[in-house]
């Protein structure tokens, strides 16, 4: 069953075309990632699907309901964790949760099972004001609040931005457990490494979806030879590789550079080129494409 269907959605703010002709088909129980840099249009799309903003063109349904006509039903059955912090800073952890439960006509007790895993981790701090929680704890509270009315569909707009690596990891584990409860999850992130944890991802840039696929399929279809290259002087390495004639693109990737070439190249040839330019501690090896390589390629 389709849980989220988007047909040709476009939206401009004055002259800025924030999203353009977006089509998406997200299945019930799917964990779908919207991956793209700042300003790509992710928040705009979320706001349209969450019935908070009207599109200029196109239509969309969430859990079978139309985002314009049936906005009330969508609001009842949707959990939305907006990018910017959505909690009441002056209320305690427990008061925040109770507030969200009350506005949806439910109670913490009624749906405790759904949030138990997540909420238990912050329950020792239930008397603390939300404004005084760490980033990771705020995120867990915001997720608990978004889930307390047992939504069928969950929208998470950049939930891990500004959160440390350990909390990010934990957060994705929580999402996997929610998915197992058959909640459809649409999550956006600027972190390409998180894409690997989704069932399918849509790459979005400048308001347009460039590609939709399971992450493994996307990376397996990467069409160019790709190398991981390292040397002592990374800055100079980048400059020099830009002048290497087979280079298609080269960009920093962790402690290495990712070099994609126009045609197959023997790693020895790259080493010789770099040796001639006095590079030391040179490492060159073929590597598998990541989602980031695919994004750069598109
Ligand atoms: N209210 C607004 N008025 C004018 N322009 C806007 C408004 N909201 C967003 N934009 C512009 O629309 C484009 C898409 O923004 P959007 O917030 O949807 O992107 P995003 O992918 O969520 O990025 P970010 O993570 O930076 O929010 C950007 O160019 C942004 O500057």
From TrEMBL:
Highest taxon of the lineage: Bacteria
The keyword Nucleotide-binding is assigned to this record: yes
SUPFAM superfamilies for the chain: P-loop containing nucleoside triphosphate hydrolases
MF terms (GO), sorted A to Z: ATP binding; ATP hydrolysis activity
UniProt domain ABC transporter: residue ranges: 4-231
Keywords from the UniProt entry: ATP-binding, Nucleotide-binding
InterPro entries: AAA+_ATPase, ABC_transporter-like_ATP-bd, ABC_transporter-like_CS, P-loop_NTPase
Entries under PANTHER family matching the protein: ABC TRANSPORTER G FAMILY MEMBER 20 ISOFORM X1, ATP-BINDING CASSETTE, SUB-FAMILY H, MEMBER 1
Protein name: ATPase
